[in-house]
Amino acid sequence: MPAHKKPAVVLLSGGLDSTTVLSMTIRDGYRPYAISFRYGQRHQAELERAKRIAALMNVVQHIVIDFNLGVFGGSALTDDRIAVPKSDSVEAIGVDIPITYVPARNTVFLSFALGWAEVIGASDIFIGVNALDYSGYPDCRPEYIAAYEQMANLATKAGTDYLKSSIGSPMRIRTPLISMTKAEIIRAGLELAVDYSETLSCYDPIDGELACGHCDACLLRLRGFQQNGIPDPARYVTL
């Protein structure tokens, strides 16, 4: 990968959205540095996928950050005493913020990414948040991203240098999927030859490999592939 390309930090979960974003980053001429998190989630399957995807897509470097939001509890993704909600259709998904929301997760993720971006001289951080086909998380909204980007420029040397004297570039939080439906995201990824069989989106996978088919993430993903008229290449335990 040519050294003259601009570096960028990409948040990589091993799921459909973040893998699509990584592919877009490469298409747009960046040198991608991928960052993933072992944050106390109930399963580690997504991290194994992230490692494989990072290797397949030849990122410059892939790091996994360890910390434990599970000590707080409060989410079905970090507390095994709380069941992951399951439904039979997208229409059955509730309108309230679901129990799969992990308090402050994206804020913490972006903070680590911001620190790494400064060290490697990157002014662009890519994250696969989406404000259309998503589960209602408050830290996936455009106004949250805009506020975080403003904070990032106030909180970093790179940002303050730019604000004071226009030296360098401002810190930017890039969200290429934020206004796309899941079907549009999948279509864009297929045009970039993303191998979606390597991705795992499920909140409650079985044996670390099989998607449950009934959590919010699975239902939204399945509908996206259905709207594109093709089967989801992920492996499911039941549908």
Query: Percent of residues in beta strands?
Result: 5-15%
- Helical content (DSSP H or I, runs of 4+): 25-40%
Uncertain segments: none
Number of extended strands:
5
Task: Give me the secondary-structure category.
Answer: alpha/beta
Query: Which series of helices and strands comes N to C?
Result: EHEHEHEHHEHH
Shape: globular
Secondary-structure arrangement, i.e. CATH architecture: 3-Layer(aba) Sandwich
Structure characterization notes:
Helix 1 (16-27) packs across helix 6, helix 4 (142-155) packs across helix 5 (157-165) and helix 6 (182-191) crosses helix 7 (216-227). Helix 1 (16-27) links the parallel strand 1 and strand 2 (30-38). The radius of gyration is 17 Å and the shape is globular. With 239 residues, it is of the alpha/beta class. It has a single domain, classed as 3-Layer(aba) Sandwich (Rossmann fold). The chain has helices at residues 16-27, 45-56, 105-120, 142-155, 157-165, 182-191, 216-227, and strands spanning 6-11, 30-38, 61-66, 124-126, 172-174. It has a five-stranded parallel sheet with strand order 3-2-1-4-5, sandwiched between helices. The protein is built from seven helices and five strands; from the N terminus they run E-H-E-H-E-H-E-H-H-E-H-H.
Write the layout of secondary structure elements.
Layout (H helix, E strand, L loop, with lengths): L5 E6 L4 H12 L2 E9 L6 H12 L4 E6 L38 H16 L3 E3 L15 H14 L1 H9 L6 E3 L7 H10 L24 H12 L12
Helix pairs in contact: 1-6, 4-5, 6-7
